[in-house]
Amino acid sequence: MSPRWEQSFEIRRGNHVVCHLHVHLVFVTKYRREVFNDDMLTRCEEIMRDVCQSFEAELREFNGEGDHVHLLVHYPPKIALSKLVNSLKGVSSRYLRAEYTGRINRIGTGSVFWSPSYFAGSCGGAPLSIVKDYIESQKRPA
């Protein structure tokens, strides 16, 4: 790998690993209630950015609508994705419910802000068909 290639893809290096991991996360509000306005989305992004930094991850993109948010996170392999998700949802729920009590209570999500489920999709790198072709093309030892 050339240094230029590594810089363009922002490769992470550790003692025993070279990696490039991104995940697309989607979190939905409880009962898909239309809770978010622009101000809440901005605050949610700030909270989630801080949580990612505490995990040595980076929130690359964030956006959302009234009932859900999308995140693109660049993370190291030492992170268990489920732990990152639990922290992102738990911390943001705590702060948003405390800071926007009137709005959240008026909409009626109760003490739970996020739905317990979430979407996580790996992204980045070559399409699966190209990776599959590359692996198939490798020669087996004689």
Automatic annotation (TrEMBL):
SUPFAM superfamilies: Transposase IS200-like. Residues 18-138 form the Transposase IS200-like domain. It comes from the Bacteria. It holds the Pfam family Y1_Tnp. This is IS200/IS605 family transposase. It comes from Streptomyces chlorus.
